[in-house]
Amino acid sequence: MLDIQKIRADFPILSQTVNGKPLVYFDNGATSQKPQVVIDAEVKYYNEINANIHRGVHTLSQLATDAYEVARGKVKDHINAKFAHEVLFTSGTTHGINLVANGFASILKPGDEVVVSSLEHHSNIVPWQMLCEKTGAVLKVIPIDENGELIISEFDALLSDKTKIVTVNHISNALGVINPIQYIIDRAHAVGAAVLIDGAQAVPHLKPDVQELDCDFYAFSGHKMCGPTGTGILYGKETWLNKLPPYQGGGEMIKEVTFEKTTYADLPHKFEAGTPNIAGGIVLGTAIDYLNEIGFDKIHEYENELLEHATKRLNEIEGIRIYGNTKNKASVVSFNIDGIHPYDIGSIIDKLGIAVRTGHHCAQPIMNFFCIPGTIRASFSFYNTKEEIDAMVDAVKKAQTMLS
Ligand code: 7TS
Predict the structure, then answer these.
(1) 209/184 same-domain check
(2) What pTM value is reported for the model?
């Protein structure tokens, strides 16, 4: 069992009031809060070892470089990558996906196919559309059903030897649905396609094993897993990262530069041009240590309890519709109340100290499918409580009375 009060004490922001009410933070899908150890590690870096990395012979530069590479090793162990050089530091999931989509511009030919799903965040749609425009490749979309689940038979039917890459999220940010990625990876590989998994919403809740999954790429953001903003990881299989061209040119990604020809550095540096978010990378390692100390098994069990409690309590509300009704779901509840715009509920409950996200959640195709302008999304973390869920349900009921 988790000691939630002890865990909550690790997060200074949670003890504040907002609009005169205790903060109830249910916007974890957008970004998680940060524990004191993470905040302290960021300060310690700037107080003690701040220097640029991979370039100085001086002591501070070496200390900063070592700390950055230790963090890369922590990520490698965490996701069970085979090599540390398969772990690229990025600014977030968006950066990682764009890096891969940009690289595929040198691989795809007109008529090749890219498969995405209807459940994607815009950052796993738009880069592929841009790629298709550039190359003449065709974007194919796996549809969803009324429960918000991918229609797998339609996915099977989309695959052919024209399919060059399949790119889907592990968990939907808008609905919380967990996708059958192992099946998707295996089937895509059977037709020779590469697979990118957008793990942005998965890594706060579970520990992915990229070797077991056998995915070719796995992208995620540090800021959704208790790490600093502006941090992220792109895992890529060594063979793929060697095949793809660099994303950006600049310092630190070269072996030798002349005006006639430049040769590129080995992995991972080939994809890490310029000065990165050094403090952020190091501190992402601290965040991963923090989460592993709590334990993902315990996090999973507790967040499931929160999800069950929220689903049960919200279903008491007349006229509620919850989107994403599947057994396999992360601790996210996306809902609407009959006849009321989600924005109105969100604004009223904010006055009561409750932070949820309202709108299309950067997943407009899902909203179009359900013919709605958006939803109210409560996304829970292991530091949330059932009492907070009860406070949200009371606040939503109050808003419903005021608005109807
Ligand atoms: N993919 C998924 C599944 C996401 O949920 C998000 C962000 C991204 C990609 C992009 O991540 P970034 O760190 O590069 O911005 N999702 C959300 C959200 O649900 N609310 O705010 C951001």
Answers:
(1) yes
(2) 0.98
